[in-house]
Structures are given as structure tokens and as C-alpha cells.
Specification:
Strand content of chain B: 5-15%
Oligomer: heterodimer
Order of helices and strands of chain A: HHEHEHEHEHHEHHHHHHHH
Number of strands of chain A: 5
Strand content of chain A: 5-15%
Radius of gyration of chain B: 31 Å
Helix content of chain B: 55-70%
Strand order of the largest sheet of chain A: 2-1-3-4
Largest sheet of chain B: 6 strands, mixed
Distance between the termini of chain A: 24 Å
Largest interface: A-B, 110 and 115 residues
Shape of chain A: elongated
Distance between the termini of chain B: 24 Å
Shape of chain B: elongated
Number of helices of chain A: 15
Strand order of the largest sheet of chain B: 3-2-4-1-5-6
Number of domains of chain B: 2
């Protein structure tokens, strides 16, 4: 157990790194989770369109049209400048900017026309741009229907009444309901949070375990241990046990912190337990991978760079930060040799698992692959250590 | 003396092969990985609308309601069949221009389809129309609900309009002619005169990841400059203690130490910019302005490091962790890991976004890419310069008049 104890003594030197990373995780996770937590879980969450209208016509028709938009969307007031409009579209403050030109009213009422010129600018939220365009389309169509009903032109004395009728007709509502309970949203958020812990685990395990291991593998430290009569096998076992213990404690802390944010009641959901299972297997696999690369590298100066590159590269290509469907297929194939991508895929499968007749076969498969990876990397590490020991002897 | 220190600091930087390799290697690897992970988003499919999959339950609805809804379905969608192995609903014909792919189902069947995620929602037709869907945290799927609800509202609105016109006909306000029904039908199908334009906002949404990455990489020298300060403070390194013996002002030694860092990282950020161009990431034609902003960001990063290094007298471990962790956190808040975070920060903590140097560089690059005027760019350059001046002042405060009780 001397190597085991020594490991934790050496690890004290990395306390600052551990606390910094954990502090960063706590702040970020707290911010992200609370910003996305649903307020009313029983209702179906549907994004409402946000529209900006610049009315250059100011006719009764354009005013009625703007009033209709106000009733069906959130109207966002903006300064009419390129920067203000683009900023608002880019930041999602508005999803659609409509410009009503002069003569809009005249064009709408014209007997020969069945539309009027309108300019619009959509945002990156293509769905909400479609919804906004549909709002415009249905007003125009309903207006044209009334125009045709009056024989091609709406009599001036009937205009006000007709505009009121259009507004009343368009006030239809559809009832919406959330399927099962609103907990699905929370479980999805939990799945995303679990994915985010993968990055912290990779970064911390590579940097902290790395710096400690490299210090422990310093030839003079190693010689001292071996001269004192500790067999190499026992020393390796002690070091591995210590890294596992540290990883488990760190993992438990991250899990507990997430549940304090999202609620421990989620633990009653089977999917939540599956997420914990996947996360644990992933942690063990990452530990094995990190151990292998650190044993291979043995350079303390390069460790910080390696840890940052490795954690960011694995996280970006494995779907931790960016959805997997956006990552190119060849990249996905390459990263399938890393456990993280399997953990992310398993988590995605779990959060979308049907409640009736759930099928966890893929999750088992992913956990099996991660376990095999852990075993393979552990064997490689042991072989590498053995060969180094021989070359030194 | 200045030249002497600069020369030997440069030699020390260049001859430390391991650190030099990682200093150069890290940003290039990160950019390559970023490109590999993100280049899929440049595809035009990223912002494509895929029809919403729906199970339609007619249940006990009246025959005329079912007929009306069928007509509506033909107008807005195409029928579909469940995919193999419980896969999502697949359209039976080309779903081009369709808003929905639908399947008629019994209530229990529809629930199973939704439970297995084969459809986004199921819709119950009757006196009122009800849509049921899952609350999920997925940007594209969650927005499907807005489109579907809007379509269903349209169905109800058409019914309202037909009833209103019927009332007008009954009251005698409207006298229908021979082709009345045909004209009404055509009016319902009329197009709007809506002209939509996209001024680069969509591509900008993908590029913001690269803008934030460049912002992060320009602040990244912070870690290197923290260790440079350690070589100035006699209580932090033996080399600094030795150099203190030389009768040479501290501020001159500081600039002599920092100059090789400034040159090295400036060259590096220029290489990264051109390397992105080689990878095919087009950041816009204003190369000069972009490089000025990146170099300003690099200077800010270096002096942020010196400020942290001189103000915090803690252990090297804390400083190293801060040097690596702080740029990563600033990168995270500027949207480097998820562009939605940038929006969350802007809405929740707008002040943080205004002072985050990574965000400032990213927004400056975005403004150069997206705006015809340079007003926003110069505004950001001024803010970043203020940040740089503050970092320099903090460094001076941290470095000046140090007393060492025991070295």
C-alpha cells in the first residue's frame, strides 16, 4: 500500500488543477442547467415566433396586418439599421424581419392582384422562419378569399368590417399536450449534462493522473520504491488502485452535483440509472485510455498541452459539444476507437428510449465495447510498463 | 542588456523543443480537429427543413371533418410508412415542398409510434384539433412543434373563414356568382408576394465556432506569459533571483522577457489564420482588419497572463491551471463549444459578454464577415484595447516595488 499512499501524497501537488477544473465545471453546469430547466413541465414547450415589422405604408390594411401579427407572435422593436437587425437575427432576439413597403394596402386591395410585395429576412432558426412566413401567407390568403367573395374588390364601406372578420377568423387555436410527463425534458437535459461531464473527466483524468503518474514514474522515485523491497507488480497495482479510487471519487462528485441541480427525484427514472451506468463504464474506459497515453508520453512539460488537446479533440469529435449527426462520417469512424463516442451514442439512445417496451440492447453493446476498450488499453499499458522495466534492467 | 535578454529568451524558447513543439502543435491540431468536427455544418443541409412526422388519429370525428382534414393533409403533406426496425416515418413519395409526413393510426397505435420516436407528434381530429408531442431538448426537433401547430391552426382558420363567408352569403352581404367556389379555392391557394433574403446570417452561425476558436487561440498565450512573469520575480524562480543581481530596471527586463513571446505568438496566430484558409474556411475578404484584431487579441492574451502571473502569488500549479482553464472558460462562454451558450450568456449575463476578450475577438470577426460597415469592428477594437490597457496596468501594479523577505 506504500505506492497507493505515495500516489495521493504526490497528487496533492495537483490540488490546484483539480479545484480549478471542478470550480469551472460547477459554475458552467450550474449556469447551463438552470438556464435550460423547464418552468412548467406539464405543458408542451413550443417556441413562439418573434417578428420585427417595419411598416412604411401605415394604411388601414397594413395596420390591420401588423395588429394581426401582434396577436400571433411576439413583436420585437428594433432600430432600423443593418447592425441592429443582423445582431437581433443572429442572437435569436427576433426570428423574422418583415418590411411592409408603401402601397402595400393598395396592392392588397387591387382587383387584378392576389398578393402584395413584402420583404422579409429570416434567421438561422429555419422552423421559426417558416412559421413566420406562414403567418404572412395565411393573412394574405384569407384577405384574398374575402376579396374574391366580394367579387374581386372589397367595397370601401365594408373594409373595416372585413378586416375585423379576417382577424376573428384567424384567431383559431389548437390545443397542445405533452406526451407522458414533462420529465422527458429533464431526462434529456440530464443526458446532455452527463455528456458534458465526459469532457471534464477526460481533461481532469489526463492532467491530474498524468502529472501524478509521471512524477511517480520518475526514475529516482521508482528506484527508491524498488530498492525498499516493493515488488514492481505490487507497486503497479497500488498505483492503478489509487488512480481508480481518485477517478471514482471525482465521478461521484460530478454525478451528485448534477443531481443536486436537476433533482434527486430523477433517480427514480430507470433511464437515469442507465445513464449512471454508462457514465461509470465510460469513466473506467477513459481512465484506461489516459493511463496508456500518459505511460507512452512520460513528458511532464508536454502534459498540459496533451491534456487540453486530447480532451478537446475527443469531446469535439465524439459529439460531446456538437451533435453527432453534424460530424462527418469519416471522423466518426476514426473516433469510434475512443470510448466517448460510444457513451454519447448510448446516452442519446437512453434519453430517447420508449417507455413501453424499451430496448436497451444497444446500450449494453456500447457498454460492452467500452469495457473491451478499457481491458485492451489496460493490457497495452501493462505491456508498455513491462517492456520499459526490461529495457531499464 | 535589453537585446541580450531578448536574444537569450528567444534562444531558450526555440531550444526548448518540447515546449516549442507543443506551442505550435497544439493550436494547429486544435484547428484541424475543429475543422474535421465542424466542416459537416457547412453543408447546405444544416439549415434545411425536414418535414414533420405525424400520426393522425381520426377516432370518433364526424365524416365531414375527416374529409376536410384529408383534403388539408393532401395540401400540406405526403403519406408515409414506419421505417424498418422501428425507424422514423418515411415518406411514400418525394416529400419535396411537403411540411409533414403523415400516417393514419388508431389512438393506441399513435401513442406507440410517438413513444418509439417514429413520429414527432400525433394529432387528434375532432371538434377541436389536439396535438400531442414529447418535450425534448433538441433544437431542431423541438421547433417542429411550432411548424405543426401553425399548420393545424391554418386548418381551423380555413374552417372559420368558410363559416364566416357562409354567414355573409346567408345575410345577403355577399351575392355569390357562377364561379364563386372556384375563385374562393384559388384565393385559398394564392401565393404571397413575400421575398425572403439571407444576408449571411446562416453561414455566420457555423463560422461563429471558428471565430470563437480564433478568439480562444489568440488568448491562449496567456499560459506562456504567466511562466514568463515567474522568471522575473526573484521569489518565484532561481533564474529571476540571479538576474536580479544585474543592475537593470525591472520594467526593461519585463519587456525583454515578453517580446519574444509577443513575436512568437503573433507569428503563430497569422499562421493559424492562413492555415484555416488552406482548410477551406472562408473568414471573409478583410484580411488586414482580421489580422489586426487577432494580433490585438494575442497581445491581450499575453498581458492577461502577465497580470495573472504578477497579481497571484500562489503556487505554480494554480497559475498553470488558471493559464489553461481561464481561456477555455472564456472560449466556452463565447460559444466555442456550443453556439447556443453565447446566446444564453448574452441574455443572462450580458456584461460578461461585453468584457470577455474571446467573445470580443469572435464578435469582431463576425462583424467583419457580416456587416458592410466597420462601426461595430472599431467599437470592438476600442473595447479590446481598453481591456489590454487594464491588463497592462494590472501587470505594472503586480510587478512594481516587490520586496522579497527571503529568496
Amino acid at each position: 500500500m506504500r505506492a497507493f499512499k505515495l500516489y495521493f501524497k504526490v497528487m496533492r501537488g495537483s490540488l490546484a488543477t483539480i479545484l480549478t477544473y471542478i470550480g469551472i465545471f460547477v459554475v458552467i453546469a450550474n449556469f447551463v442547467i438552470n438556464a435550460q430547466l423547464p418552468s412548467k413541465e406539464a405543458d408542451l414547450k413550443i417556441a413562439e415566433p418573434k417578428i420585427t415589422v417595419f411598416d412604411a405604408d401605415e394604411s388601414p390594411v397594413s395596420k390591420a396586418f401588423t395588429a394581426y401579427l401582434t396577436e400571433h407572435a411576439e413583436i420585437v422593436e428594433l432600430e432600423d439599421t443593418e447592425i441592429a437587425i443582423n445582431d437581433a437575427l443572429f442572437d435569436g432576439e427576433t426570428y423574422y424581419v418583415i418590411r411592409i413597403p408603401q402601397d402595400f394596402g393598395k396592392q392588397m386591395l387591387h382587383p387584378e392582384r392576389n398578393d402584395a410585395e413584402l420583404n422579409a429576412q429570416g434567421s438561422i432558426y429555419v422552423h421559426l422562419s417558416i412559421v413566420s412566413a406562414q403567418l404572412v401567407e395565411r393573412y394574405n390568403q384569407t384577405f384574398q378569399v374575402y376579396k374574391q367573395a366580394f367579387g374581386g374588390s372589397i367595397p370601401a364601406e365594408q373594409l373595416e368590417n372585413t378586416l375585423d372578420l379576417i382577424r376573428t377568423d384567424l384567431q383559431a387555436e389548437v390545443s397542445t399536450r405533452a406526451f407522458l410527463s414533462g420529465e422527458t425534458y429533464k431526462i434529456t437535459l440530464l443526458g446532455t449534462s452527463f455528456n458534458n461531464t465526459f469532457y471534464i473527466l477526460i481533461a481532469l483524468l489526463t492532467s491530474v493522473i498524468g502529472s501524478t503518474l509521471i512524477a511517480m514514474e520518475n526514475q529516482s522515485v521508482k528506484n527508491r520504491d524498488l530498492v525498499s523491497g516493493i515488488p514492481e507488480r505490487q507497486r503497479t497495482f497500488g498505483i492503478f488502485l489509487a488512480t481508480l479510487l481518485f477517478s471514482v471519487v471525482l465521478w461521484i462528485f460530478l454525478i451528485v452535483f448534477m443531481y443536486t441541480q436537476l433533482g434527486f427525484d430523477l433517480l427514480t427514472d430507470t433511464r437515469s440509472l442507465w445513464l449512471i451506468g454508462v457514465s461509470f463504464v465510460h469513466m473506467v474506459a477513459v481512465l484506461a485510455v489516459a493511463n496508456f497515453f500518459i505511460t507512452l508520453m512520460r513528458n511532464k512539460g508536454a502534459l498540459n498541452f496533451f491534456s487540453t488537446v486530447f480532451s478537446l479533440a475527443v469531446s469535439f469529435t465524439s459529439g460531446v459539444f456538437v451533435p453527432l449527426e453534424l460530424i462527418q462520417a469519416p471522423v466518426q469512424k476514426v473516433v469510434s476507437f475512443m470510448p466517448t463516442v460510444w457513451a454519447v451514442k448510448a446516452n442519446n439512445a437512453i434519453v430517447h428510449m420508449p417507455e413501453q417496451a424499451p430496448d436497451y440492447s444497444f446500450v449494453w453493446q456500447a457498454m460492452g465495447i467500452m469495457t473491451l476498450m478499457a481491458v485492451a488499453f489496460l493490457c497495452l499499458t501493462l505491456v508498455l510498463r513491462k517492456s520499459r522495466q526490461r529495457s531499464f534492467a | 542588456m535589453f537585446r541580450h535578454i531578448t536574444k537569450y529568451k528567444t534562444l531558450a524558447l526555440v531550444k526548448d523543443h518540447s515546449s516549442l513543439f507543443w506551442t505550435l502543435f497544439f493550436p494547429l491540431v486544435l484547428v484541424t480537429v475543429f475543422h474535421l468536427a465542424m466542416s459537416g455544418m457547412f453543408s447546405s443541409d444544416t439549415y434545411r427543413f425536414d418535414p414533420v412526422t405525424v400520426a393522425v388519429v381520426t377516432g370518433d370525428a364526424k365524416q365531414e371533418e375527416i374529409k376536410a382534414f384529408d383534403t388539408f393533409l393532401d395540401y400540406v403533406g405526403v403519406p408515409g410508412t414506419p421505417g424498418k426496425e422501428d425507424g422514423p416515418l418515411q415518406a411514400d413519395s418525394d416529400p419535396k415542398d411537403a411540411y409533414i409526413i403523415y400516417i393514419k393510426a388508431e389512438p393506441e397505435e399513435a401513442r406507440v409510434l410517438l413513444d418509439k420516436n417514429q413520429v414527432y407528434a400525433f394529432v387528434e381530429v375532432g371538434e377541436t384539433v389536439t396535438m400531442t408531442a414529447k418535450n425534448i431538448l433538441n433544437s431542431s426537433n423541438s421547433l417542429n412543434g411550432s411548424v405543426l401547430r401553425s399548420l393545424l391552426e391554418r386548418y381551423t382558420q380555413i374552417k372559420n373563414t368558410m363559416n364566416s363567408i357562409e354567414n355573409l352569403v346567408t345575410s345577403g352581404a355577399i351575392r355569390p356568382g357562377r364561379d364563386f367556389e372556384e375563385r374562393i379555392r384559388k384565393a385559398f391557394e394564392s401565393d404571397t408576394g413575400l421575398h425572403e433574403e439571407d444576408q449571411g446570417t446562416k453561414k455566420g452561425d457555423v463560422l461563429i465556432y471558428f471565430f470563437a476558436l480564433l478568439g480562444y487561440l489568440s488568448i491562449f498565450p496567456m499560459a506562456g506569459s504567466i511562466s514568463s512573469v515567474a522568471e522575473l520575480e526573484a521569489n518565484q524562480s532561481s533564474r529571476a533571483a540571479r538576474s536580479w543581481l544585474a543592475p537593470y530596471p525591472k520594467w526593461k527586463r519585463f519587456f525583454a522577457e515578453i517580446t519574444p513571446n509577443v513575436v512568437l505568438y503573433s507569428i503563430l496566430i497569422v499562421i493559424i489564420y492562413y492555415y484555416l484558409g488552406v482548410l477551406g474556411v472562408d473568414l471573409g475578404p478583410r484580411t488586414g482588419y482580421i489580422l489586426v484584431l487577432l494580433l490585438l487579441g494575442t497581445l491581450t492574451g499575453i498581458f492577461m497572463g502577465t497580470a495573472v502571473g504578477s497579481l497571484f502569488k500562489g503556487s505554480t500549479g494554480i497559475k498553470t491551471a488558471l493559464g489553461i482553464g481561464l481561456p477555455l472558460v472564456l472560449g466556452f462562454f463565447s460559444g466555442m463549444m456550443a453556439s447556443e451558450i453565447r446566446k444564453l450568456v448574452k441574455n443572462s449575463i450580458p456584461f460578461l459578454q461585453k468584457i470577455n476578450p474571446v467573445s470580443l475577438v469572435a464578435e469582431g470577426l463576425y462583424s467583419l464577415y457580416n456587416y458592410s460597415t466597420l462601426d461595430r469592428y472599431f467599437d470592438i477594437v476600442i473595447r479590446l484595447s481598453i481591456f489590454l490597457v487594464i491588463a497592462i496596468v494590472l501587470t505594472i501594479i503586480g510587478l512594481r516595488r516587490s520586496n522579497y523577505e527571503s529568496i
